[in-house]
């Protein structure tokens, strides 16, 4: 077996930087073009590079001509708890005043480019207004997700009551900083049948686990395996922009995995896990021994079980290929979406500009009803109807009819017949854990993998994260929950990696998610399962509102549209451990929440 998790040996380090992105418009339309990466040497002690690896890169210590310095304001211009974007000529910087001290950081969230000045400053960190990522203002480090990269931190000095910021021109143009990472120095990498860490599943949880291990100085072998034919990609974007190509969706370029020795096995299906001998067997018979294992297999979409289910042109959306084929077939034709949850509604919204007609079939009486409640669901439904989407509610599909094998009509239980050339099924998903049934790893009655706060399963050395787990949600009295969201998968992957390294980390993030339809975003934070009331402030008709979900006397979740940064603000309050009472949100006076600072 490869070495265990002993003290990391001296490692070679390389930082990945990504070239500037074009100024971005609507966050929803971003297809994640990352620019081509370049590696360069990190600041700090001299790094050792192999001869064939020397990079014609900027010197680790930026020289005077690589830097720009400017007075950006007077010390009295900012109050404590205030943020301001300031211009340095080569780019903007986020200036923050907190507890009498000034900090200067990158001004855009590396995830989708949100302006952080519109975010929330609290407890020494700034939280993104769009999707809730958090950055430490003293270091620029990413502290909560989504996204993989941190912010650059710039030097600040005060002279004669003026605030000066000094920054390297390159850092100003790259709105992201990839943390320094170890490289793999295991001699067996790439060809032996044993690995130190094996990660099953290459979504957000698997990738963040691998990156965290490298960031923490771990230099042994890491193998990441995935059913997909692609390197890790931004799956939530699939249903929001079905035309996106795999290379636009990639979370990291191919060179990144090579540079840090993270081996990715694509189209690799694990069929059995033998925990006694610490070995997994793949479908093609290949066997791999491991010393630590992360299970992050995600979920499999549910399919229709009605008559005609084998008809052509009926899809679930799981891969870029699925999404691209749906758009091709829907152009100028009739599309039917089954299921009015997040995936179904995002797909329906995207197809309105492409298809001749879009119809949605749903069992409930309003879309998103279980998640967002009746009133918000109805307001969103109206927005869809104004965009020519036809709804068939409180019914389901009884038959799919074909002509020459291809879908022609969808027959509903209400006996309506809807014309359809393509059908997308978004009726939920089940954990993809069938391959664990014969192992001694515990699964619950629904097939989820129960873990503790450290993401450990019942088997020592075996961790699990992402959509396939249930875990104790700290701020809801450690209730065991399954939260199949992108941000949560990132956070769990990180905690699993930290505990593989015996750091005793616990999961304590506040769930945060978003959806985008017709260029409008809905943001959501908390865990609203079992809410018994919804308090709405603002204007539902105008889609400018905030909805508080309460259970008994407590606010357990919040959703908003066109009301930033309220959801990030509530997430910060919940993350600080403070409960929000129902009476605080009933009055409509939100000064307690929207006040500057913490």
From TrEMBL:
Q: Does the keyword NAD apply?
A: no
Instruction: Give a yes or no for keyword Metal-binding in this entry.
Output: yes
Q: Which UniProt keywords apply?
A: 2Fe-2S, Apoptosis, Electron transport, FAD, Flavoprotein, Iron, Iron-sulfur, Metal-binding, Mitochondrion, Oxidoreductase, Transport
Example of a GO cellular component annotation carried by this entry: mitochondrion
Annotated Gene Ontology MF terms?
A: 2 iron, 2 sulfur cluster binding; metal ion binding; oxidoreductase activity, acting on NAD(P)H
Query: Where in this chain does the record put each Rieske domain?
Result: 70-165
Give the matching InterPro entries.
FAD-oxidoreductase/Apoptosis, FAD/NAD-bd_sf, FAD/NAD-binding_dom, FAD/NAD-linked_Rdtase_dimer_sf, Reductase_C, Rieske_2Fe-2S, Rieske_2Fe-2S_sf
* Membrane-crossing segments per the record: none
Record's subcellular location? Mitochondrion
GO annotation terms (biological process): execution phase of apoptosis
Family under the similarity heading: Belongs to the FAD-dependent oxidoreductase family.
Function (record text): Induces apoptosis through a caspase dependent pathway. Reduces mitochondrial membrane potential.
- The protein's name: Apoptosis-inducing factor 3
- Which gene name belongs to this protein? AIFM3
